[in-house]
Amino acid sequence: MALYAELHRHLGGSVVPRVLWRYFERHSSELISRFADYPEFEEFYTRPRNTLDEYLELHTLVESVQTVETLPYFIYRLLRGAYIFENLAYLELRYTPYLRTPEHLSQSQRIDKMAEIVDVVGRASKISEYPIVTSQILCMHSRLPYEVNKAIVDLAAQSRQYVCAVDIAGGDSYYRDRLKEWIELYEYALSLGINTTGHLYETTAGFYPELLPYLMRIGHGIQIPLLYPELLPDLAKRNQCLEVCPTTYLKTGTLQDIRQLKLVFDRCFNAGVDIAICTDNAGLHNVRLPFEYENLLTYDIINFEQLQACQDAAFRHAFAWPYSQRPASLLNGLLKPQSAQILAMKTN
User: Fold this and answer.
1) Any idea what DSSP says for residue 31?
2) Which tens digits make up the pLDDT trace of 128-143?
3) For the structural domain made of 4-323, what CATH number should be given?
4) How many angstroms separate the CA atoms of 62 and 53, rounded?
5) Under 8 Å between Cβ of 121 and 113
């Protein structure tokens, strides 16, 4: 039964270790030649890293094999798992299309190829046997030039049947020197009617209050309630939602203990700031969204009522969810006539 919404999942980090290992075995065995067996590969792929930069290097391993030809293979398996094991009704996949184009091409040729990537991802995501509402978020990247990032915004505007928003990624410690560019690009995106989110305040280096007014949602944002709670009232006024990905902060060394997130949730609930619980990189973590829910409950970071509030917030802030209610409410509506009929049969 599909019930949940996932707002922050990277295409590069969404491939679970077993699927990636099988692909490498069949098509790129040289990439796993240094591993004796699958358990050794899984341990390397999913173990915690010391920093966010070290963690993000793993994305390059997957990006190198996510091409026009192979993306349908990976997306089919991603959606199959999301539907069967995670009960997802809605999924936003984010990635940088430029990084899925052939590296030997010129910059302009790679820009031209990006539209094909978006189209392939969009078509591959429409699977009748796993009916999940899907959409794409295109990520600008801190290590790409302005021309490429602007082309990504333009592509989002031209691909509205598949794309619901733009993002900025690549490590939040690298934005400062080009802050004017990012503001200009977000202003441009908003002028085109494109939804916006962005990786900010994930780490202590991600302090960019100048960018906050341009975002509808905030990717991670946990350092706001932890270190800058005075910003929370403004987030509440702007109806901004934090995309909190619990396991990520342990994998990147950002937090030492998941229980540190209790302060994040407490302060956000008290300030009226919505949180959507997400996985970020379900493959790199070897976890699924229900596990994130269960972990937060197990460590008494949130209670069941707060969990439901976060699940409701995920659908409320979803950029491309086409209904006014979340699936549980729709299902209840369908079941009411059936329940009434059963009650009538019992009383007659």
Assistant:
1) G
2) 999 999 999 999 999 9
3) 3.20.20.140
4) 16
5) no
DSSP, collapsed to helix, strand or coil, labels residue 279 as coil
φ, ψ (nearest 5 deg) of residue 303: -105, 180
Find, among 239, 344, 257, 332, the residue nearest to 301 by Cα. 257
Distance of CA 162 to the CA centre of its chain: 15
Residue identified by tokens 């309630």 is: 225
Strand order in the sheet with 163-169: 4-10, 88-95, 133-141, 163-169, 195-196
Per residue in 46-79, pLDDT tens? 888 888 888 777 767 777 788 899 999 999 999 9
List the structure tokens of 97.
């299309």
Task: Give the largest Cα separation in the chain, rounded.
Answer: 76
- The structure tokens listed for 285 are 């973590």
Q: 10 Å Cβ neighbour count for 278?
A: 26
**Going by C-beta distance under 8 Å and a sequence separation of 6 or more, which residues neighbour residue 38?**
17, 18, 21
Check pLDDT > 60 for residue 284.
yes
The whole model's pTM is what? 0.91
CA–CA separation, 130 vs 89, rounded Å?
Answer: 9
Q: 307: which 2 tokens?
A: 């969990």
Answer whether residue 339 shows pLDDT above 60: no
How far, in Å, CA of 235 to CA of 289, rounded? 25
